[in-house]
């Protein structure tokens, strides 16, 4: 039973790019480019007249990956390049690994507000990341004598690596996963077995993809691109999944105090984007837009930063409460696999059924383009729910700094 009083806001269109491996096919595109691709496809699938879109909510974590360093204009440029009305606003949100989910939460909130506060009825929500293009910067202060000059001899910083540390808590992402997993009794073998499963599931999903004549992964659309040699590439599948074995994974070095995290059981650095068009149900029905799936609830919660991987646990509890359902009512889960140790900690604490969780593989195999991941999970979740006839699904991610975010969606045509 849907919780009384929760607004009915539907997903009218949803699409995602393939996820590109680091320095792979999609690395020639900036985050803005990929966001435009995903937005255009989500708009096309919704069938909406672009003039009916009232706002854009965009997410991009690693700024300054675009040519000319224009990522500060990210959501506005997406709006303009998609030829939406000049008059509408665009908002950039950033909740690290939960940013893609946050676009939907913000879009939902704008639609749900009384019209006297916000007259948004339809929102384009998009998350995008080109981690391959995260730059190296020189940290050097401006001089007092001339504001436009800099002190010589600044320190060089890898912006990608800098973001993986949490200096205030004196920890790093992989260490928090190691600590949480260890607390929950997770072993290195558990992590490697799960990583192998993630890759196996992702490869199996590709075989049943709609590009291969099946009915799976229908959220993915193809991109015409060029590889790093300039050769044309028709990219119609995720690039990161690979054939691996437990024996190979077990030989990789452990990077963390408890040796739970290795290069083989952590999420893949990658590039990608996903977009969703969400709308007030009444407006969607007036316009004849798809209205089968609706946002049933969402939640954000904080946890101790040193075990940030636990974030999905309280976030899912909040989202389920808003949806007016229990965990047993959820037929499919997408839990971001930042690290196998982190995912397995959540799985154990929540007693998740692995048979209905990350059924097509997760970020260990697919990749984790930070701002895109939450939106990617929602797109994949929605289409897999439709494929299996599942009524409720939940997507959730842990978030650096000690947070979690979760979104529950409902198939109104499923019994």
Task: Name the features.
alpha+beta; Peroxisomal Thiolase, Chain A, domain 1; 415 residues
Overview of this protein structure:
This protein is 32% helix and 22% strand. The protein is of the alpha+beta class and 415 residues long. It has a domain at 9-134 and 267-411: 3-Layer(aba) Sandwich (Peroxisomal Thiolase, Chain A, domain 1), CATH 3.40.47. The strands form 4 sheets. Strands 1, 2, 3, 4, 5, 12, 13, 14, 15 and 16 form a 10-stranded mixed β-sheet that branches. Strands 6-7 form a two-stranded antiparallel ribbon. Strands 8-9 form a two-stranded antiparallel ribbon. It is globular and about 55 Å long. The N and C termini lie close together (11 Å). The model has no long low-confidence stretch (mean pLDDT 96).
Q: What is the terminal separation in angstroms?
A: 11 Å
CATH class descriptor name of the domain at 9-134 and 267-411 = Alpha Beta
Helical percentage: 25-40%
Give the radius of gyration.
21 Å
What CATH calls the topology of the domain at 9-134 and 267-411 is Peroxisomal Thiolase, Chain A, domain 1
Q: What pattern of helices and strands is seen along the backbone?
A: EEHEHEHEEEHEEHHEEHEHEHEHHHEE
């Amino acid at each position: 039973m849907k919780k009384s009083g929760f607004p009915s806001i539907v997903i009218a269109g949803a699409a995602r790019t393939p996820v590109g491996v680091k320095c792979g096919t999609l690395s020639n595109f900036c985050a803005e480019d990929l966001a435009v691709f995903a937005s255009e496809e989500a708009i096309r699938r919704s069938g909406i007249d672009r003039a009916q879109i009232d706002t854009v909510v965009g997410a991009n974590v690693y700024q300054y990956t675009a040519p000319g360093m224009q990522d500060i204009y990210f959501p506005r440029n997406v709006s303009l390049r998609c030829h939406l009305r000049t008059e509408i606003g665009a908002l950039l949100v950033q909740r690290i690994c939960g940013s893609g989910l946050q676009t939907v939460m913000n879009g939902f909130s704008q639609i749900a507000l009384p019209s006297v506060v916000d007259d948004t009825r339809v929102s384009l929500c998009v998350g995008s990341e080109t981690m391959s293009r995260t730059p190296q910067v020189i940290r050097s202060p401006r001089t007092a004598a001339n504001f436009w000059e800099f002190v010589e001899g600044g320190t060089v910083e890898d912006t990608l690596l800098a973001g993986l540390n949490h200096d205030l808590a004196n920890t790093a992402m992989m260490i928090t996963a190691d600590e949480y997993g260890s607390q929950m009794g997770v072993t290195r073998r558990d992590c490697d077995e799960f990583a192998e499963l993630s890759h196996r599931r992702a490869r199996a999903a590709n075989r049943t993809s709609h590009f291969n004549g099946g009915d799976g992964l229908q959220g993915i659309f193809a991109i015409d691109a060029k590889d790093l040699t300039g050769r044309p590439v028709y990219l119609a599948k995720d690039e990161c999944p690979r054939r691996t074995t437990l024996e190979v994974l077990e030989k990789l070095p452990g990077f963390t105090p408890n040796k739970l995290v290795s290069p083989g059981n952590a999420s893949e650095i990658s590039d990608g984007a996903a977009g969703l068009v969400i709308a007030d149900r009444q407006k969607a029905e007036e316009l004849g837009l798809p209205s089968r799936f609706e946002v049933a609830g969402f939640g954000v919660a904080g946890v101790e930063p040193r075990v940030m991987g636990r974030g999905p646990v309280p976030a899912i509890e909040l989202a389920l409460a808003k949806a007016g359902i229990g965990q047993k009512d959820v037929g499919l889960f997408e839990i971001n696999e930042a690290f196998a140790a982190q995912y397995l900690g959540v799985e154990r604490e929540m007693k998740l059924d692995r048979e209905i969780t990350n059924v097509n593989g997760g970020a260990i195999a697919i990749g984790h383009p930070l701002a895109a991941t939450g939106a990617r999970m929602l797109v994949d979740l929605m289409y897999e729910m439709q494929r299996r006839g599942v009524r409720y699904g939940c997507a959730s991610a842990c978030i650096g700094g000690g947070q979690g975010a979760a979104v529950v969606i409902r198939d109104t045509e499923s019994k």
